Amino acid sequence: MERRLQTIEAQIRFSTQIIKRLGEELNPSIDQSILELVKNSYDADAKSCIVELDSITELGGSIKISDDGNGMDSENIINGWLVLGESSKKADEKTKLGRIPSGNKGLGRLAALRMGTTARLTSYPKREKGTFYELLIDWNKYDNAKLVEDVSLPVKKYQSVTEKFESGTIISIENLRNKIGDREVTKIARGLILLSDPFDDDPNAFRPRLISEEFREMEQLVARRYFDDADYHLVAQVDKKGVGYASINDYKGNTLFQATHADLSKKSKKGNVYKCPPITFDLWTFLLNEVTFSTRQTSVGEVRAWLKEFGGVHLYENGLRVNPYGNPGNDWLDMNLSRAKSPEERPSTNTSIGAVRIKESDSLLSQKTDRSGLIEDETFHEIKSFCKDAMDWMARSRMEVAERKRTAERLRSQVESSGTKERLEKEIKLITGPKQNKIQQAFVKYEKAQKEEIKALKAEIQLYRTLSTAGITAATFSHESRGNAIKVLTVSINTIDNRIKKYLSTSYEDLFKKPLIRIYASVDSLAVMGNATLSLLQRDKRRPVKVNIHKVINNSIEILQPFFDGRDIKVTSDLFEGNPFVRATEAAIESIVTNLFNNSIAALEDVTKQRQIFIRTIVDDNILSLTVSDNGPGIKGLSLRDIWLPGETSYPNGTGLGLTIVRDAVHDLGGKVSANANGEYGGADIIVEIPILGI
Amino acid sequence: MGIQIAEQVIDRLCIIDDDEGARSSYVEAFYDSGFKSFPQERVVDVDLFLNNSLTASDAVVSDHQLKKKNYFPINGAQVVSMCYDRRIPSVLVTKYDQAQLPEIRKFRQKIPVILNPSLFREDTIIHSLEVCIKEFKGVMRADRKLWRTLVRIDSIEPNFIYIIIPGWDTTEAISIGIDELPQHIRTIVAVDKRMHVQINVGCESVNDLYFGEWEVK
Question: Fewest Cβ atoms nearer than 10 Å: which of A54, A432, A455, B45?
């Protein structure tokens, strides 16, 4: 039987080696460690935080971080700052200035403090004015001790003799064990920028500063953020009389465009003044691509990260930031919507940053009672309207420049082409002997052929333009006819039909049924024109997706059916079993099928026997072969090679473009086209072969 | 007089269409029915219309495209949704194309029935009004009921995003106008982003789909 003799209390104790493990090995990143101390300043409601880097490119340098935050008393230092692994900050509890605490559990802080051989903390607590606390951590003592608890850390309290610090904390890390290079300082600078408020208007904003003689450029970067990297800076103002004006500057500050009130308010205000207090609106817009940033010190990635955090237009009233305008996710000026509608030359909240500053608002604007923004009254809408007008003008101005560039590019190409010709002719003249003549002749031939090609291309473009215009006009009228004329016909004939059935039921079958059926059929036939045109124009059809070819064929037949009926054409389809599909736009497949049907419809115009169109598909070795045949006269007066050329047609009113479109669409799909002048049914066979992805 | 539909008497039927011929045709169609139909003349002020003409109507039949001829300051889908708010049974009679779909879908939650003009008859109108009245009483047809549904953004194009609704059709990408998205969603759209949306996944045609609340994780 066991008998207890004694109970000995024990605790887990930590070797001093654990400090090293936690400090250095778990937190190897120098920049993150220093930024952790800066975050501590942010969490302490500091407005200023200065990071001084002194001789850090050499061993033995020092880092000093000083802030004007709340400071710490002995209690805060002993039970907060010196405790590792536990955060006294609750993530959902905001600071007095409304900040969300950002620091972590103190391991980053430990790593930072361990960067030197000593770390000195001096803190002036807000709660105990006139006193300050000091703590010195000498890491050498830990190197010589066995356990963490063996090293005593006295926190000394002093009476302050200077008025220099009202409150705040200074941390000095001295005698650095490692050198700190460009890369780390750049990362520290980026981190500071991401922590700082982008504009200096708000007196409560957090403004970290970097001071380093060795890294002046980084010092400047933190001070200026990335504003100098903006490609365009819009400066717009409304004066006391409500008159607006604006200018756009380039990154050097040179004015590119200037706008008067009339230029800005042309559309929405018709010359009227803006009914709002004086405002200034600055918007910095960035062209975020590798090309524009290739010659800059900053990378496109870091600017993108900054804009992700601060992008959008912030609003300040009498120097104070008004939330939520410009917060992540708040796009009160609908920039993203405008950009989505017209992407060219429009900034989004991810590519720009701006500030609207309202001064002397004279109580014209009032905050909502829950402080969730301004009451959106007429004055507020006028401010919004001005900002939107300014951005619209900016977009128009930039579009003009883009258009000028495009025109210049076209001219430059022409000049280059003519210059190349002159150079070639010169080179030919330098050739001696009979070869010169041969080359000269070959060049003349080549030039002639090229001119012919250009001529043909110009004619083709003109034809496309003409047909586009015809298409646009047809679409407009389709809307119109389908909207009203056909609707009136449909409803009226229904009414007549029902009324005859009701009041003249005995004579309905004999006297009215047949003509009514004919009217119904004719209305359907009329509707097909609008339906077919509008169906072709559906936007979704121009998006590359998995397209079921048989489905498109069947849909096309269904849409055109009243048209076939009206022309007494019988359509017979013999489709391969299964659903062959390709990745393409539905519009491409539809244009192939519809143009082949149109081609056959035209061919059957003079046919007096039963008019027939046959459509057949066969799949062999992942190639779909689609054949459209008819029992018309076949291909006459044109060679089989020429039927694919634009403008070539044997029908008096034909455009000669249908088969060209078929050919081009099939080529785009990696397929080929062929034709028989007189096929199985007497008329032409047009054969399209397309590689498919599956059945 | 009037016609009793779902325990409610519908007598005066307001006909809204920007084309005078179409208005007359609709009125004509009801000439010998149990309804008293009357054409709505041009409306300049929507509030006036809501407070005057509409109060004298038991039901409304409206075309969608009303603004083109400067006949109405808003389009039919919005008119019907306003009637819905006032518990006035209304039918949108229109043959709309895909381009108009986003504009109509914005109000679709409050448009119980869209009728093709070719189906415009007394019996179909009575049936449509019945659907509306039942909806006012909380009886939703299965194809109109919203369900919390997972969607994935398939691609983004100027003015539109395409989403896949796996619970409805795993293959068809549905286009949604940027205008249709709530403000807080517009800024966070990204390809392959998933979110929950209230959708009437019981419907069969893409034209009948509509969206309620959009949630972001």
Answer: A432
Question: What tokens were used for A297?
Answer: 């010190």
| Helix (H) and strand (E) counts in chain A | 19, 21
pLDDT at B131 over 70: yes
Residues 6+ apart with CB under 8 A from A539: B98, B99, B160, B175
Separation between Cα atoms, residue B44 and residue B23, nearest integer Å: 18
Which one, of A597, A679, A684, lies nearest residue A634 by Cα? Answer: A684
pLDDT of residue A253: 81
Indicate yes or no: CB of B19 within 8 angstroms of CB of A495: no
Q: Is A482 on the interface with B (CB under 8 A)?
A: yes
Q: How far apart are CA A158 and CA A180, in angstroms?
A: 33
Q: By the 8 A CB rule, do B106 and B180 touch?
A: yes
Nearest neighbour of A545 by CB, restricted to B31, B173, B186: B173
Tell me chain A's radius of gyration from C-alpha atoms.
39
% of chain A beyond a pLDDT of 70: 91
pLDDT tens by residue, A505-546: 999 999 999 999 999 888 887 877 777 777 777 767 777 778
Does residue B123 sit at the A interface (CB-CB below 8 Å)? no
pLDDT of residue A70: 92
Within 8 A of B171 by CB-CB distance, chain A residues are 546
Which range, of A100-109, A223-232, A434-443, B56-65, averages the lowest pLDDT? A100-109
- Give a three-class secondary structure readout of A426-463: HHHHHCCCHHHHHHHHHHHHHHHHHHHHHHHHHHHHHH
List, in sequence order, every beta strand (DSSP E) within A318-417. Answer: 320-321, 352-358
Angle (CA) A298-A301-A306 rounded to 5° is 85
Over 60: is that where the pLDDT of A91 sits?
A: no
Mean pLDDT lowest for which of A374-388, A667-681, B52-66? Answer: A374-388
Name the closest residue on chain A to residue B216, using Cα atoms: A329
Closest CA to A71 of A121, A114, A105, A113: A121
DSSP string, A477-503: HHHHIIIIIHHHHHHHHHHHHHHHHHH
**Of residues B148, B144, B182, B176, the one with CA closest to residue B162:** B176
The DSSP element (H or E) to which B93 belongs, if any, is: strand B90-93
With an 8 Å Cβ cutoff, is B204 touching chain A?
no
The number of residues in chain B equals 217
Beta-sheet pairing, A320-321 with A255-259:
unpaired
Q: Does A372 touch chain B (CB under 8 A)?
A: no
On chain A, the residues whose CB falls within 8 A of the CB of B22 are: 484, 487-488, 491
User: Strand pairing partners for B92?
Assistant: B62, B114
Two tokens, residue A284? 């910095």
Alpha helices in A543-657 (DSSP H): 549-566, 586-603
Total Cβ atoms within 10 A of residue A164: 8
Q: Is any Cβ of chain B less than 8 angstroms from the Cβ of A484?
A: yes
d(C-alpha A342, C-alpha A34), whole Å: 43
Residues A386-423 pLDDT 10s: 999 999 999 888 888 777 777 777 777 777 777 888 88
Checking if the pLDDT of A255 tops 80, the result is: yes
Query: How many Å apart are CA A484 and CA B69, to the nearest integer?
Result: 12
Pairwise CB contact (< 8 Å): B28 & A495: yes
b/e map of A257-295 (b: 16 or more CB within 10 Å)? bebebebbbbeebeeeebbbbbbebbbbbbebeeeebee
Among A154, A81, A87, A158, which residue's Cα sits nearest to residue A124? A158
CA B181 to chain CA centroid, nearest Å: 17
Write down the pLDDT at residue A483: 64
B18-21: list long-range contacts, CB under 8 Å, 24+ apart: B18/B63, B18/B65, B18/B66, B18/B67, B18/B68, B18/B69, B18/B71, B18/B72, B19/A483, B19/A484, B19/A487, B19/A488, B19/B63, B19/B69, B21/A484, B21/A488
pLDDT band, very low/low/confident/very high, at A264 (cuts 50, 70, 90):
confident
